[in-house]
Amino acid sequence: MKSYFFVTAAAISTVLVLTAIAGAITGNYDRLAWFAAAVANLPLPLFWLRLKFARVPRTSRDLPLLIFVSAAGTIVALWQVLLTRSADWQPAAIAVAGTALLLLYVFWYSRFGRVPNARLAIRNKLPEFTLTDLEGRQVQASEFLGAPTVWVFYRGNWDPFCIAQVHEIASRHADLEKLGVQLNLVSSQPEDRVRELAAELAAPLRFLVDRNAEVANALDIAERHPIPPGAAGYTASGAMPTTIVTNASGTILFADETDNYRVRPEPDIYISILRRAGAVAQ
Questions:
Q1: What range does the domain containing 46 cover?
Q2: Over the stretch 6-25, which tens digit does the pLDDT of each residue have?
Q3: Are 166 and 183 in contact (CB under 8 A)?
Q4: Mean pLDDT value of segment 130-151
Q5: pLDDT tens digits, residue range 42-75?
Q6: Which of 65, 192, 227, 275 is the most buried (most CB within 10 A)?
């Protein structure tokens, strides 16, 4: 269900916005209720457009401003219908539908339902695992011992938050390099998709491929991706967005296992942790 929800919900809300505007223009009464219904449905399509045309690496967890706008529209629509004792409940129903879709997106679609992961607990050693680089060479996690390392597991090019997160990290590549920090970007998507993303970036980042999501499963961070319609050519499983920071000996200093695909750690967070821990290359 999740693979179709967001696009479908945004499309339905868009249709409801247009229906409400048409009702306000052509109706002989309750124009305020119709406009309020349009307002109640606007947040989700506007949010979708923002993701489509701007790089957004993260949002607030619960999108309170969008919920406030939508709820306000619904309250006005309901109040207006009750105040005028109108027999036409259509604008109120449209408003309620818009708010319900937004709440489903915020509190259901955006959540993974993750539980604390003992494998990635602070002070644990990062387990050994094998990835593949873009030349097809197998790469062991232990090869990165001797320098602090940031591991960023991202879902794929189809997720706009992942693309924005990778671009944001690329913009801080020089800061990480000065600290002697290695940066590994890991996904389960096919190599050609990884190369497409790498070609967009000016910074020389290291991209690694987790074939068949074997490492994601071993680290207990795997999910079956709710890949949206139209995103062909991607694997159906991979890692949930996860950031792991280790020191030179492979001890975990920081692990962000977000339960919300819209919430990612800012690079400043783990850069400051690395500096405080004195994690520099040996």
A1: 2-109
A2: 989 999 999 999 999 999 89
A3: no
A4: 95
A5: 999 999 999 999 999 999 999 999 999 999 999 9
A6: 227
Q: How far is CA 245 from CA 57, 203, 271, in A?
A: 19, 20, 9
41 within 8 A of 17, measured Cβ to Cβ: yes
Q: pLDDT tens, 221-263?
A: 998 776 777 677 787 788 999 999 999 999 999 999 999 999 9
What is the domain count for the chain? Answer: 2
Q: Which residues have CB under 8 Å from 32's CB, separation 6+?
A: 76, 80
Identity of the residue numbered 121: A
CA distance 257 to 243: 7
Residue 62 contacts residue 106 (beta carbons within 8 Å) = yes
The proportion of the chain whose per-residue pLDDT surpasses 70, expressed as a percent, equals: 96
Amino acid at 187: S
| Whole-angstrom distance, CA of residue 33 vs CA of residue 27 | 11
Together in a domain, 246 and 189: yes
pLDDT at 250: 94
Pairwise CA distance, residues 57 & 279, whole Å = 26
List beta partners, residue 209.
132, 187
- 218: tokens are 């071993």
Q: Are 15 and 129 within one domain?
A: no
Q: Is the same domain home to 65 and 6?
A: yes
What secondary structure does DSSP assign to 134-200, as a single string? Answer: TTS-EEEGGGGTTS-EEEEE---TT-HHHHHHHHHHHHTHHHHHHTT-EEEEEE-S-HHHHHHHHHH
Distance, CA of 17 to CA of 142 (rounded, Å): 54
